[in-house]
Amino acid sequence: MDSTESSYLSSPTNAQPKSPSDFAEKPTYVRFLVSNSAAGSVIGKGGSTITDFQSQSGARIHLSRSHEFFPGTTDRIIMVSGAVNEILKAVELILSKLLSEIPSENDNDAEPKSKVRLVVPNGSCGGIIGKGGATIKSFIDESQAGIKISPQDNNYFGLNDRLVTVTGTLDEQMHAVDLIVSKLSEDAHYSQSINSPMSYPGVSPSGYQGAPYVLPSGSAPAYNPSSHITNGAGRKFENNKEDRSNSVTIGVLDGHIGFVVGRGGRNIMEISQTSGARVKISDRGDYISGTTERKVTITGSQRAIRTAESLILKKVAYAAEKAIEVE
User: Fold this and answer.
1) Dihedral sign, CA of 119, 120, 126, 128?
2) What is the pLDDT of residues 57-107, one digit of tens each?
3) Which of 156, 196, 269, 290 has the fewest CB atoms below 10 angstroms from its CB?
4) Of the ranges 48-57, 293-302, 303-312, which is most confident?
């Protein structure tokens, strides 16, 4: 992929002819996450892959810029818009592409299972859940996919979206996505947010971007929001044994840990010396549950933790940039 890539949006060309019913259908959209490293395969050389997917599906595909991440992650956002059938075709093409590039871990003929995380406005999640959870249960039963909705996170200022994780084979995922998108398309407020910006307040090239997950580990007074923005797909938990001894655990992708540590431990020593915090990284293979992210525990005063976390985030952002350049 070209290293100059920052964002990609183009109109579908040579799209398949639409039926009269398609013209009557109001456009809607779906957003989901893709790792920064996998974004290149979706775009393709010179945008060839994403252009082909738009041509085949008739949908529009918009990928967030190289540093526009969903808060609390190093994942970029893909938005697919159009009629429901166009959206589903495009999503299937994208997921199939991503799945084809995952190395097989076994030699049996079982279809591999994976997960896709949809980004859904908090106000629209109620329609997916249904009264007493009846709707989401029916979606799970019908699709045979696992569907989980993250709790609302109030720790990140300006974050009004939740993640809906769909787990299963490609067929199971697509069946569930079909049910979810069809349900969302009935929500007038959801469709009206089709032109909402892809970026989030506080997550910009000059600020906290691509932030690692922050794990719950206790309770302590929150940081002053004016001086620190907590990125919220994960949660922050601090052990407050005494006023000057707090700890925060964040997650950093295993492939980015080397940039945090540095040659001979140089970077991590500088981070500790500059911030005054103690930084400990979990052993290889000791990941946050369900991820390939290593645990990075920062201990010290709140000021020291904030400084160390900021320095680590800069290293993570640099690692993400290098990953794009080598694609």
Assistant:
1) negative
2) 999 999 988 778 888 788 889 999 999 999 999 999 999 999 887 766 555
3) 290
4) 48-57
Alpha helices in 6-162 (DSSP H): 20-24, 39-43, 48-57, 84-100, 122-129, 134-143
Q: In angstroms, rounded to a whole number, what is the distance separating the alpha carbons of residues 315 and 309? A: 10
pLDDT at res. 222: 32
- What pLDDT, on the 0 to 100 scale, is given for residue 11? 47
- 300 pLDDT tier (thresholds 50, 70, 90): confident
SS3 at position 88 = helix
- H or E segment at 153? none
Query: What are the tokens at 1?
Result: 């992929």
In 3-state terms, what secondary structure has residue 161? Answer: strand
What lies within 8 Å, CB to CB, of 188 at 6+ separation is none
Residues 6 or more apart whose Cβ sits within 8 Å of residue 296 = 212, 249, 250, 251, 252, 260, 279, 280, 281, 282, 312
Residues written for the chain? 327
> pLDDT tens digits, residue range 210-233?
334 444 333 333 323 222 323 333
Q: What DSSP assignment string belongs to 217-279?
A: ----PPPPTTT-----SS---B--SBTTBEEEEEEEEGGGHHHHH-GGGHHHHHHHHHH--EE
Helices (H) and strands (E) in the chain, counts: 11, 11
